[in-house]
Amino acid sequence: DGLLAISRLGELVPDWAERETWACGPAGLLDAAEEHWTEHGSRERLHTERFRPGVVVAGEGGEVTFSTTGRTVAADGATPLLDIGEEAGVLMPSGCRMGICFGCVTPLKAGAV
Ligand code: FES
């Protein structure tokens, strides 16, 4: 019941540091788990899955080349690449347009997003 206090982990699972651990949950729990495993030198045994990436800070933008068309356009750091591509006339796969379905995820061939 309630939140798991990472400090109580040793009481609940005495050999936790010797086990491979997979954790999925809210960011606060995973941050605490990563800190705990790191402090005890067992970070390599903790595998986490986050629902969302950490804090995303918009970059300054740059040039984007869509490989299917070879079209290169300027992109600011705030407009989604899906919108940038469509504005440039590039047919992009998409679904929910809300960051839920991942229907718009395509491979990044070079650079950073
Ligand atoms: S269209 Fe991008 S996440 Fe659904």
Structure description:
The protein has helices at 9-12, 27-39, 81-87; strands spanning 21-25, 46-50, 62-66, 71-75. With 113 residues, it is of the alpha+beta class. It folds into two domains: 6-50, no CATH class; 59-108, no CATH class. A two-stranded parallel ribbon has the order 1-2. The protein has a two-stranded antiparallel ribbon with strand order 3-4. A hairpin with a 4-residue loop joins strand 3 and strand 4 (71-75). It is elongated. Bound molecules: FE2/S2 (inorganic) cluster (FES). The site of FE2/S2 (inorganic) cluster has 10 residues, from loops.
Topology:
Blueprint: H1 9-12, E1 21-25, H2 27-39, E2 46-50, E3 62-66, E4 71-75, H3 81-87
Parallel strand pairs: 1-2
Antiparallel strand pairs: 3-4
The chain binds FE2/S2 (inorganic) cluster.
Radius of gyration: 20 Å
Q: How would the global form be characterised?
A: elongated
Bound molecules: FE2/S2 (inorganic) cluster
Helix fraction by DSSP (H/I, runs of at least 4):
10-25%
Indicate the low-confidence ranges by residue numbers.
none
The spatial strand order of the largest sheet comes to 1-2
Number of domains: 2
The number of helical segments is 3
Please state the structural category.
alpha+beta
Number of strands: 4
Beta-strand portion reads 15-25%
Q: Report the span from N to C terminus.
A: 39 Å
Largest sheet: 2 strands, parallel
Provide the residue-averaged pLDDT: 89
The arrangement of helices and strands along the chain is HEHEEEH
